[in-house]
Amino acid sequence: MKKYNRKEFLSIPNCMGYFRLILIPVFCMLYLRAELSKDYYIAALVLLVSSLTDALDGFVARRFNMITEFGKLLDPVADKLTHAAIAICLMFRYPNMKYLFVLMIIKEGFMAVMGLWNLKHGVKLDGAKWFGKFCTASLFCVMLVLVAYPKIALATANLLIFMEMGIMLLTLILYIPQFYKMRKKWDS
Fold first, then answer.
1. pTM of the predicted structure, to 2 decimals
2. What is the pLDDT of the chain when averaged over all its residues?
3. Region for residue 81 given its phi and psi (left: phi exceeds 0; alpha: psi -120 to 50; beta: otherwise)
4. What stretches of the chain adopt beta strand conformation (E)?
5. Percent of the chain with pLDDT over 70
6. CA contacts within 13 A on the Cβ side of 151
7. CATH superfamily of 1-92
């Protein structure tokens, strides 16, 4: 197992990742206790800060050559935990969010299992693909809209949820050949 040094743990991009993890319970508390529109706006603002920090940590890591193996693990974990927390909170208001949440678990579970399986054979996915990045961005946008506008019509909310499910399902389907190509590398 790789041993990380203190400098790697305390790099600026990784500290931003820790900050994003701290924002998860802050968001949950704000959202679940929200009563007025301004309360929901504040919860949405926390998500925007988290998202900006996510973009900024990657920029800083690349720009200042602070990319670390631990950061490569921390960043997607912070993303997935943030998205899961938002989805769970939204389930209290939008019942169909549970279907999106289940699909998130299936997609991320598939990605994790296939990634680990290929890694075991010495092959790594060469970064997120454009469709994976698009899926992550669209998921965040849909959830941000649902957080910020709690009075949105249920039909509109459901439309957004089911459209995002379509994007997520398509993304999962597009990743299958990527993992198949990786498997062929360690088969030969």
1. 0.90
2. 92
3. alpha
4. none
5. 96
6. 6
7. CDP-alcohol phosphotransferase transmembrane (TM) domain (1.20.120.1760)
